[in-house]
Design a protein that fits this description.
The complex is a heterodimer of chains A (about 280) and B (about 300). Chain A is mostly helical. Chain A is built from twelve helices and no strands. Chain A has helices at about 5-30, 35-40, 55-95, 100-110, 115-130, 135-160, 165-170, 175-185, 190-205, 210-215, 220-225, 240-270. Chain B has 15 helices and two strands. The chains are: A mainly alpha (about 280), B mainly alpha (about 300).
Chain lengths: ~280, ~300
């Protein structure tokens, strides 16, 4: 009897809590389907302007080059991050050579260097290298900036692979490089995917560095939606609604990732736990 | 190096064993696997970091070579009224923003944890995590819209008969800072919620059974068992929040640009503006240097304080 009652109260509070938390998403989606008049009259209702979804078509026209550019930058950066970090992590986890501990600490120390500290020198460096307004001006710092954390996670993972597997491979005549390509890489796919997803999320949403490195005609999607310019033939009254549609479009890849990953993410964070 | 040693060894009559050769080969592979990482971080991590620490003591327009000025950037900072007010803003922001990053997320986690049905617990966690699909840029800009003259907030005030409170929240210097800090209502941060939830899960069930036998009510259980036993999570999130608030360049840059006037300028934003907008790169790097030192000191302090507490 008493055990049941408090749950109803909890559920009511939680439902209100959830609704308020997701309201920005609801606001974005409902108003992206309206026109400027409908939003001005009442932003809380659900209504559909004619033609249905027209704002999305206009928004896509406005941001599609930036959308593709972001995809390109994310793809190359993430491949570089994962590939180079895996090589280093394997080297640290499985091979023996002089100065290994020092080199590892030299990378580990980078985790203490915050992004804002290097922002200005990085900008000046990219400028001096004549990489302003190029995708490489972002890709190179992204690859460098993500190495430390990725190496740290990969190394922990590789160290946890049972030693017998390596022993068996050695008996079968595998050398250090073959053990990397045929044993470590296949076993590390889950952790590689995790690191890749984290970086996709971070790079896709990054605003500060791209807004410095790229001018508006070379922008990434996160910058383009912030400085949203509707297509010239679009009714200016609906510009705000088109921007909301652009927000929704830019959130789509991340939403897809999360739907695919949610179960794993929610479970992963809660099962391992943070032991401090 | 090792190859060379092996060669010397064989010349002076020591037999180069296969074990030695394997060691040499392993070192070569080991170093060459590290090579790509080090090429990248040397160019785009170490170099800018050294440049940042070094540049704090220079006067530099970003075009002509920098000139060494010692501590004069820092002296100038302490009498720079914009910088001083930016420090005040970040202190207010921390005092309010750090509890807001921790308390509502804990409440939500505790509410979920107190549900009997594990299935419902999973559903609520998933719903809260759903908010992560909005990129930070989008959620900041949507909140900017909420605060606007004909935004959702003002409409709500009109609807409940408080039209007198209607207000352009981020265009008024008296309310802009508060509006920026209080964005994101009801402040449940999915990551923090999941950290707390996992902390609650790791509390031994026997403790709850004992409390139930003693007839402790839910609130007592929260106060005497759950809060003391998630202090480790609180400490982690405290450090992350301190770092997060002081480093947050995106929110003020995008939402207000520090304005109106300098009413929402934070040190990180001021660093950005001096360097990018006024071409005073040395001065900007001095601000970055100072924030860096303070953040490291604060993190170390909060770590130490909470260890003693436990």
């Amino acid at each position: 009897m008493t055990a049941k009652r408090p749950n109803i109260g909890l559920n009511i509070i939680l439902v209100i809590y959830v609704l308020l938390s997701v309201y920005p998403i609801v606001f974005m989606l409902t108003n992206a389907f309206k026109d400027g008049m409908q939003t001005a009259v009442n932003p809380f209702t659900i209504a559909f302007a004619q033609p249905f979804g027209g704002n999305f078509i206009m928004a896509w026209q406005a941001i599609s080059p930036e959308f593709y550019r972001s995809l390109y930058i994310v793809a190359i950066s993430v491949v570089g991050i994962v590939a180079f970090a895996m090589l280093s992590a394997y080297s640290f986890a499985r091979l023996e050579y002089p100065w290994k501990g020092f080199l590892f600490n030299a990378i580990f120390a980078l985790l203490l260097v915050p992004g804002f500290l290097t922002l200005i020198p990085l900008f000046l460096e990219i400028k001096n290298l004549n990489l302003l307004n190029t995708s490489w001006g972002l890709i190179l710092p992204y690859i460098a900036g993500s190495q430390a954390f990725a190496i740290f996670v990969f190394r922990t993972f590789i160290q946890a692979i049972p030693g017998e597997l390596f022993e068996a491979a050695r008996i079968d005549g595998a050398n250090d490089i073959q053990m990397f390509t045929r044993l470590v890489i296949p076993l590390s796919v889950p952790v590689m995917v995790t690191i890749a997803l984290l970086n996709i999320n971070g790079i896709w949403g990054d605003y500060v560095l791209p807004s410095l490195i790229l001018d508006p005609s070379h922008a990434t999607v996160a910058v383009a939606i912030a400085n949203f310019q509707p297509p010239q033939d679009a009714p200016s009254l609906n510009a705000g609604n088109m921007q909301l549609a652009a927000f929704a479009i830019s959130s789509l890849p991340i939403a897809a990732l999360f739907l695919f990953l949610m179960r794993y993410f929610v479970a992963g964070l809660t099962s391992g736990g943070v032991k401090m | 190096m090792s190859n060379y040693l092996v060669a010397i060894g064989s010349r002076i009559g020591l037999k180069s064993t296969s074990k030695q050769r394997r060691k040499t080969i392993q070192a070569i592979i080991g170093y060459s696997f590290l090579l790509p990482t080090f090429v990248f971080i040397a160019g785009f991590s170490y170099y800018p970091a050294v440049r940042a620490l070094n540049g704090a003591f220079t006067s530099w327009d970003g075009f002509n070579p920098p000139t060494w000025v010692g501590f004069s950037n820092f002296q100038q900072l302490f009498s720079d009224s914009t910088f001083i007010s930016s420090v005040r803003h970040v202190l207010i922001w921390s005092a309010l923003g750090i509890p807001l990053a921790i308390v509502p997320s804990f409440i939500a986690a505790a509410l979920i944890f107190h549900l009997k049905s594990l299935r419902l617990q999973y559903v609520y966690r998933t719903l809260f995590v759903l908010t992560m699909i909005l990129p930070p840029v989008v959620s900041i800009l949507i909140w900017q819209e909420f605060y606007g003259h004909s935004g959702v907030l003002n409409m709500l005030f009109s609807a409940i008969g408080l039209a007198g409170l209607r207000h352009d929240w981020i265009a008024d210097p008296n309310s802009a800072l508060w509006a920026v800090i209080l964005k994101g209502f009801p402040w449940v941060i999915p990551f923090n919620l999941l950290i707390f939830y996992s902390g609650l899960q790791s509390i031994s069930p026997e403790l709850f059974d004992a409390a139930a036998v003693d007839g402790a009510a839910s609130l007592k259980r929260v106060w005497y068992i759950e809060i003391p036993l998630v202090l480790a999570q609180v400490r982690l999130l405290l450090i992350l929040s301190i770092v997060g608030v002081t480093q947050d360049l995106l929110t003020p840059l995008l939402m207000t640009g520090g304005g109106p006037g300098t009413s929402t300028t934070t040190p990180v934003l001021y660093m950005y503006q001096t360097a990018i907008q006024y071409d005073e790169y040395g001065y900007g790097m001095a601000i970055a240097f100072l924030i860096f030192i303070v953040v490291i000191a604060l993190s170390a302090l909060s770590m130490k304080y909470f260890r003693v507490e436990q």
